[in-house]
Amino acid sequence: MESGFTYEDYRNTAEWLLSKIKHRPQVAVICGSGLGGLADKLTETQIFNYSDIPNFPQSTVPGHAGRLLFGSLNGRACVMMQGRFHMYEGYPLWKVTLPIRVFQLLGVDTLVVTNAAGGLNPKFEVGDIMLIRDHINLPGLCGQNPLIGPNDERFGVRFPAMSDAYDREMRQKAHSTWKQMGEKRELQEGTYVMVLGPSFETVAECRMLQKLGADAVGMSTVPEVIVARHCGLRVFGFSLITNKVILDYESLEKANHEEVINTGKQAAQKLEQFVSILMASIPPPDHAS
Ligand code: HPA
To answer: What is the pLDDT of residues 178-216, one digit of tens each?
Structure first.
């Protein structure tokens, strides 16, 4: 489905925000389910409800606040999404990814994505943090890509590469920073696979996703990353493993949203702290361009 927004729509939203914010952000952070606490680390905060921002969709999921915050995170000028949009809410992908292009027009050069995900890799434990090395765009392979439709060259090229979607330098810095934090559990790294949801996966689907080479499964993130890479943003991000997927027909456990929100409260704080520390490792803005 082609974008229902014109370049002017993205610009209008960006200009509406620019007329109100005190500082232009360099970094955009998307807070996944249960990770909205990152916003408490912002200083000099300015808050907008999605419902007040021209063209913004609404967030309909419990655990996703629906607010856009501007402020300083560990010294970096940031814009933060407390609550994101999902395809399973019924939004087309051009609506899901609207904020990314608006951020680019605001001058953002780096996108940090976070999400809650189910652990497919048997080495993962609930509460682990997985640095995202790569993704599998399962909806994309089945015909749902946010870049479908006429390409707008003002944002990026027709056929953007995705082989280097997750910034190598920031991944290295994430590993060294994690070591300095002295955590007992190692930082995991792996491939995130996006499924559409909202139903959780069957046992057979989980086994299939494992065989495809995925380490964690969730219902978000990939569309935003594709649109961000298309318009030239540096991207890195993390999955918080909130549950282990069910791989066994004898299991009495069942995935549920409350578990996703609640299990990882402590781990969520750890991830929030980690993201905040990593702000200092993002290269400074390139004023030359
Ligand atoms: N599957 C899909 N999405 C998820 C899961 C899961 O197990 N956990 C958190 N988000």
So the answer is: 999 998 899 999 999 999 999 999 999 999 999 999 999
With a CB cutoff of 8 Å and minimum separation 6, the contacts of 248 are: 203
Rounded CA separation 214/160 (Å) = 22
Q: Are strands 67-73 and 76-82 parallel, antiparallel or unpaired?
A: antiparallel
Q: 61 CB under 6 A from ligand 1? A: no
0.90 exceeded by pTM: yes
Q: Could you tell me which residues come within 8 angstroms of residue 111 by beta carbon, excluding any fewer than 6 positions away?
A: 27, 28, 29, 30, 100, 103, 224, 225, 228, 233, 234, 235, 237
Q: How far is the CA of 217 from the centre of ligand 1 (A)?
A: 6
Q: Which atom of ligand 1 is nearest to the CA of 116?
A: 9
Give the contacts of 52 (CB within 8 A, at least 6 positions apart): none
- 230 part of the active site: no
Question: What letter does residue 152 receive in the DSSP assignment?
Answer: -
Q: Check if 126 has its Cβ closer than 6 Å to any atom of ligand 1.
A: no
Q: What is the pLDDT of residue 248?
A: 87
Q: Whose CA is nearest to atom 7 of ligand 1?
A: 118
Under 8 Å CB-to-CB from 112, ≥6 apart: which residues?
Answer: 27, 28, 29, 30, 235, 236, 237, 275, 278
Q: Which two tokens stand for residue 58?
A: 């609404």
**Minimal-distance CA residue to ligand 1 atom 5:** 118
d(CA 197, CA 131): 22
